[in-house]
Write a structure and sequence with these properties.
The protein is an alpha/beta fold. It is 38% helix and 16% strand. It comes from Acinetobacter marinus.
């Protein structure tokens, strides 16, 4: 994954630049999951017959209609146009008739460039027609929202190759380019409408698609009358970013509490719920009134939805919820359905390749490689916000050049070194907020340089409050819903595990049980705030400085029996024996267990060439054993240059040496 660092990432960006982050975030996620998932047979693509005829009409600027062209296989066409419970479809790939995929398109233009178009999300009419013909040739069945609802209620089985075609934002091309193709092929599709855009709040819509290039209600009524088209809410006015932290980052309005700079406060939970509920309720009322329908679906702008927003949508009267996610396969019983974002004007052959890649498990976060840097946020403290932002720019620059994939942030500080972490780098009522930095750092790292951001917390910030870390995790998720995960640092608390016979003492076993309970509670309490478009993980973090083989054997696999990851910090330079024991135990793990282990090597205070050689050899040995998640700790700005110079081969996921960049560039 090559990275080219932009100047804007170094020192802080204007609000206008920040707005682009909302969709760039989605694109980065989709690029990592290779864009599409098909759970069905991968058949040879063909762009034949009627799509070619359709393209000739479209390229000449003429609208198509069913009377201008026809499709020969009318019997198959009729089945797809009006699927029913009596159809005798092959359910070998969807035996219960409960799975489908959803594809998300935006603008469709005749002049979209093959690559580098001004609109990353636009698809050419030629490519869309070719894809529609591929659907026809390979016997896919476009379905409707009602089909999904009926299947959920047990009234209907979805076809084996069910696909929901979605077109977002209400662009005029939905009427004059997409709609004629739907009539030609008799395909169903759903259109997501931001109602305020149609009713005069046109600034954002015109900026995206050009002045006057939004549909009218009359045009939508014409589409609706054919029975081929569903209309869903795309919210009323949540298709935008709102200021979400003191640094003025703009983030998706549906899932972030708004920050009021003049008042220097965030909106309360009650204010947030009222704002989002009113918007959703109004959008549904407008659609119901203008189109004479009972609107059932909310399609979230940017795919931004969490558990709280989903509950508010249900209260507003929506029974179906659609996001954007890493997986395109949805089950009719899912609370929120996942959709795949189509971008960069792909040809059908490219979609086919993307399909194959995801079929191999590319959308499974657990299976993906990781190269993690563990960074103490104290490094970003400075006298002024500008100075802190300059340090953040330095960190982003270094990661962009290095090409790592994960960043773990130590989000609390023990200022007095007394074992009590009394300050935090995020807003919370439970401890003193030293600096409100986490939201900005996590957002910039994710959207600017594609990092999967974790937060590392001490398992007991205050030993007198054993459940405090659960409350803190909830506050973190509320303001940073796109986190990849939270790890609990239990190095001191679980030191007893690594030496027998102390590891078998009841008090030591009780500590382990309590910490595993905290991890489970974090999963539960953060769920209302986590993005449902991403896979949120939890991890137990321990270190091995001194250990013995028997104690390690007793507990290594026990950590991997739950749903959590295990992050092990090993100081192989100071304790080669501990590293050797870890290597021996890794050899006893199954391949699936290895996927849930991350090994972090402890960095010395000043890394030299000889030490780096030993660390690179250790990384190579771990990779040979099948460990795909590796990292270093602690990563500091003062050591950035040395780490880049010596450990680049081990820590970079750049695809080629050609992408190597010095971190000062």
């Amino acid at each position: 994954m090559p990275h080219v660092f932009s100047q804007s990432a170094q020192h802080g960006q204007s609000a206008s630049v920040e707005r682009a982050d909302l969709k760039s975030l989605v694109v980065r996620a989709m690029q990592k999951s290779l864009c599409l998932t098909f759970s069905l047979p991968l058949l040879t693509l063909s762009v034949l017959g009627h799509a070619q005829d359709a393209n000739q009409f479209l390229q000449s600027g003429k609208n198509l209609s069913a009377s201008q062209a026809s499709i020969n296989n009318s019997s198959n066409e009729a089945v797809r146009a009006n699927p029913s419970a009596d159809d005798h479809n092959d359910f070998s790939e969807n035996s219960l008739g409960q799975q489908f995929i959803a594809l998300t398109f935006h603008d469709v233009r005749d002049d979209v460039k093959r690559s580098g178009d001004r609109d990353l999300y636009a698809v050419s009419t030629q490519n869309l027609a070719a894809f529609f013909e591929w659907i026809n040739q390979n016997q896919w069945t476009p379905i409707s929202l009602k089909n999904i609802q009926d299947a959920k209620q047990g009234k209907y089985k979805l076809p084996a190759k069910a696909v929901l075609l979605c077109f977002d934002d209400g662009a005029l091309s939905s009427y004059n380019r997409v709609f004629p193709l739907l009539k030609l092929y008799k395909y169903h599709a759903v259109f997501a409408i931001p109602t305020s855009w149609i009713n005069g709040n046109t600034k954002a819509g015109y900026a995206a698609y050009g002045d006057g290039n939004l549909m009218s209600w009359d045009q939508m009524r014409v589409m609706q009358a054919t029975g081929l088209v569903d209309f869903a809410s795309h919210s009323d006015d949540l298709h935008k970013g709102i200021i979400s932290n003191p640094q003025l980052n703009e983030k998706a309005a549906a899932i972030h509490p708004q920050y009021f700079p003049q008042l220097k406060r965030y909106e309360s939970d009650a204010e947030y719920r009222t704002r989002v509920f009113k918007d959703l309720k109004h959008s549904k009322q407008v659609l119901d009134r203008e189109l004479g329908q009972k609107t059932t679906a909310i399609i979230w702008p940017y795919g931004a939805v969490n558990g709280t927003a989903q509950d508010l949508a249900q209260q507003a009267g929506f029974t179906q919820s659609f996001s954007l996610g890493r997986s395109a396969i949805s089950n009719v019983h899912d609370e929120t359905y996942q959709r795949v974002l189509i971008f960069d004007n792909p040809m059908p052959e490219e979609i086919h390749q993307q399909v194959q890649n995801i079929e191999r498990g590319g959308d499974n976060v657990i299976m993906q490689q990781a190269r993690m840097l563990s960074f103490p946020m104290q490094q970003l403290q400075a006298g002024t916000l500008a100075q802190s932002d300059a340090k953040l720019g330095e960190l982003l620059n270094a990661m962009s050049a290095l090409g790592n994939s994960h960043l773990s942030l130590d989000a609390m500080a023990d200022q007095n070194a007394d074992g009590i972490f009394e300050t935090a780098y995020f807003p919370t009522q439970w401890v003193r907020t030293q600096y409100d930095l986490l939201s900005r750092v996590a957002w910039q790292a994710k959207t600017r340089v594609g990092q999967n951001v974790w937060v590392n917390l001490p398992v007991y910030p205050d030993p007198k409050q054993p459940d405090l870390v659960v409350n803190l995790s909830q506050d973190i998720a509320k303001h940073s819903p796109y986190l990849a995960g939270i790890s609990l640092d239990a190095k001191k608390q679980l030191a007893c595990l690594w030496n027998s016979p102390s590891d078998q003492r009841p008090e030591c076993q009780q500590k382990l049980k309590q910490i595993q309970h905290l991890l489970d509670q974090i999963r539960v309490q953060t769920r209302p705030y986590e993005s449902l478009s991403d896979q949120f993980l939890t991890a137990l973090r321990v270190d091995l400085v001194e250990t013995d083989a028997q104690a390690l054997k007793n507990h290594f696999q026990k950590f991997l029996q739950g749903d959590h990851l295990l992050i092990i910090d090993v100081d192989g330079l100071r304790s080669p024996t501990a590293f050797s024991e870890v290597v021996q135990q890794i050899q006893t793990l199954s391949e699936s267990q290895k996927q849930r282990v991350m090994i972090n090597l402890i960095l010395p205070n000043s890394l030299n060439a000889d030490q780096a050689k030993s660390m690179n050899q250790a990384f190579a040995q771990l990779k040979k054993l099948g460990i795909r998640k590796l990292g270093v700790s602690p990563y500091t700005l003062t050591q950035s240059s040395a780490i880049h110079q010596y450990l680049y081969p081990s820590l970079s996921l750049n695809s080629s040496p050609v992408t190597y960049k010095t971190w000062q560039e």
